[in-house]
Amino acid sequence: MLNLSATLIAFLSFVAVVLFICVVAYRNADRLEAYVERKFRRKAHRPNSDLK
Prior knowledge:
By secondary structure, this protein is mostly helical. The chain contains two helices and no strands. The longest helix has 24 residues. The model has no long low-confidence stretch (mean pLDDT 84).
């Protein structure tokens, strides 16, 4: 049987890593969005694309 404290430490470590990745992605969201738009730029311009 696994030690409960070791399981808790492993789970909290996993949660901390996931939260850290989310925070880093959130802080760099503008840069990531610009990168994705450059990388996956559409070839054809749609006439109503700038209307929201």
